C-alpha cells in the first residue's frame, strides 16, 4: 500500500512540467531596484542591535505577536518594503525587518557579480544566523511569530526558518530558489503568492509547490495565488504611480495579513 502510494505520487510528480523544480535567483530579481531617495513617512525606526542585526522595527512593541519580514536582495532600506511593514504593524503586530546583508545589499551596480553576491549572501546561512532574532523575540514575550518574505527573503530564507519550527505561519511572495522538496519540510501553514509573469519562479513552479503541499499526509494548511498581469517583485518593488500595480500589491498585502490573522491567533 505504502509503496503503491509512493509510486502514484512519483508518477504525478513526473507528470509535472518536466521535473523543473528549482527557481534560480536571476533576471527579474534584479528588476525595478527601489528608489532609496523616495522614502516617505515611516512609522518605525532603525535599531542597531536586534540580536546582533540592524533592523527596521515598527508597530506595538508590547504586542505578543511578531512578524519578521525578510527583504529581497535590495535590503531593508527599501521604502516600499518599510511601508508594507508599517501596514502589517497597523494590524497589531510588532514587525521587524532585519538587515541580513550587513549594510551591503545588492544595489543594482552592474559591476557586481550577482552570482557571487548570492554565494556570499546565502539565505540558508542567513536563516541559521537569524535564530538569535527568534530567540530574542521570544524572550521579549512575543510568543507568536510569523515570517513574511520576498524573493531572496523567501527563496530559502523563510522556508528554512519554517523548517526549524520557530514560527506559526509564513507567507512567501514571488519566491526564488526554493524547490519542491522544501514544501515537504515546512512545519507551519504556508501561503504562496506568485505572479503570472514571473520568469524567476514561473507559474508552473508555484503549481508544483502547491501540488507537493496537497500531497502531504499531515494536511498542513497552505494557500496559493497567482496574480495576473504582474511580474516577479510585484509585492514589494511595484511601480507606485501605476494604479494596477499598486492595487495588486495591496491585494497581496491583504492576503498576507489574512494568513497571519488566521494562523497567529
Ligand atoms: C561570477 O561569479 C561566479 C561565482 O563566483 C563565477 O563562477 C563567474 O565566473 C563570475 N562571472 C563573471 C562574469 O565574473
Ligand atoms: C505579462 O504578460 C502578458 C502576456 O505575455 C503581457 O501582455 C503583459 O504586458 C505582461 N505584464 C507584465 C507586468 O509583465
Ligand atoms: C509607472 O507607471 C506609470 C503609470 O502607469 C507609467 O507612466 C511609468 O512609465 C511607469 N514607470 C515604470 C518605471 O515602469
Overall description:
The chain is an alpha/beta fold. 37% of the residues lie in helices and 19% in strands. The chain has helices at 2-15, 79-90, 114-120, 123-129, 131-139, 153-163, 180-185, 203-214, 243-263; strands at residues 45-50, 53-58, 65-70, 94-98, 144-151, 169-175, 190-195, 222-227. An 8-stranded mixed sheet has the order 1-2-4-3-5-6-7-8, with helices on both faces. The longest helix has 21 residues, at 243-263. Mean pLDDT is 83; it is low at 1-26. Bound molecules: 2-acetamido-2-deoxy-beta-D-glucopyranose (3 copies). One 2-acetamido-2-deoxy-beta-D-glucopyranose binds at residues 197, 229-231. The site of one 2-acetamido-2-deoxy-beta-D-glucopyranose has 4 residues, from loops.
Radius of gyration: 18 Å
Low-pLDDT parts are: 1-26
Strand order of the largest sheet: 1-2-4-3-5-6-7-8
* Number of extended strands: 8
Q: Order of helices and strands, N to C?
A: HEEEHEHHHEHEHEHEH
Portion of residues in beta strands equals 15-25%
* Bound ions, cofactors and other small molecules, one mention each: 2-acetamido-2-deoxy-beta-D-glucopyranose
Structural class: alpha/beta
Q: Considering DSSP H and I runs of 4 or more, what fraction of the residues is helical?
A: 25-40%
Please outline the major beta sheet: 8 strands, mixed
Gross morphology is: globular
DSSP helical segment count = 9
Distance between the termini: 38 Å
What would the average pLDDT be, to the nearest integer? Answer: 83
Summarize the topology.
Elements: H1 2-15, E1 45-50, E2 53-58, E3 65-70, H2 79-90, E4 94-98, H3 114-120, H4 123-129, H5 131-139, E5 144-151, H6 153-163, E6 169-175, H7 180-185, E7 190-195, H8 203-214, E8 222-227, H9 243-263
Amino acid at each position: 500500500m505504502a509503496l503503491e502510494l509512493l509510486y502514484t505520487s512519483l508518477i504525478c510528480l513526473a507528470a509535472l512540467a518536466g521535473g523543473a523544480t528549482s527557481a534560480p535567483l536571476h533576471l527579474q530579481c534584479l528588476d525595478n531596484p527601489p528608489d532609496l531617495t523616495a522614502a516617505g513617512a515611516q512609522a518605525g525606526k532603525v535599531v542597531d542591535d536586534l540580536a546582533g542585526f540592524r533592523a527596521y522595527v515598527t508597530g506595538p512593541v508590547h504586542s505578543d505577536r511578531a512578524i519578521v519580514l525578510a527583504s529581497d536582495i535590495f535590503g531593508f532600506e527599501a521604502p516600499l518594503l518599510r511601508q508594507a511593514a508599517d501596514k502589517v504593524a497597523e494590524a497589531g503586530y510588532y514587525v521587524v525587518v532585519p538587515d541580513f546583508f550587513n549594510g551591503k545589499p545588492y544595489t543594482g551596480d552592474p559591476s557586481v557579480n550577482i552570482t557571487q553576491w548570492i554565494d556570499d549572501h546565502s539565505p540558508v546561512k542567513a536563516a541559521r544566523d537569524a535564530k538569535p532574532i527568534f530567540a530574542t523575540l521570544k524572550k521579549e514575550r512575543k510568543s507568536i511569530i510569523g515570517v513574511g518574505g520576498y524573493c531572496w527573503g523567501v527563496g530559502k530564507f523563510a522556508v528554512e526558518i519554517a523548517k526549524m519550527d520557530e514560527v506559526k505561519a509564513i507567507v512567501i511572495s514571488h519566491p526564488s530558489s526554493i524547490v519542491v522538496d522544501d514544501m515537504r519540510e515546512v512545519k507551519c501553514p504556508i501561503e504562496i503568492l506568485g505572479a503570472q509573469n514571473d520568469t524567476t519562479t514561473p507559474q508552473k513552479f508555484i503549481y508544483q509547490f502547491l501540488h507537493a503541499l496537497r500531497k502531504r499526509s499531515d494536511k498542513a494548511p497552505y494557500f496559493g495565488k497567482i496574480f495576473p498581469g504582474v511580474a516577479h517583485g510585484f509585492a514589494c518593488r511595484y511601480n507606485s504611480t501605476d494604479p494596477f500595480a499598486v492595487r495588486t500589491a495591496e491585494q497581496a498585502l491583504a492576503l498576507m495579513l489574512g494568513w497571519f490573522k488566521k494562523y497567529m491567533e
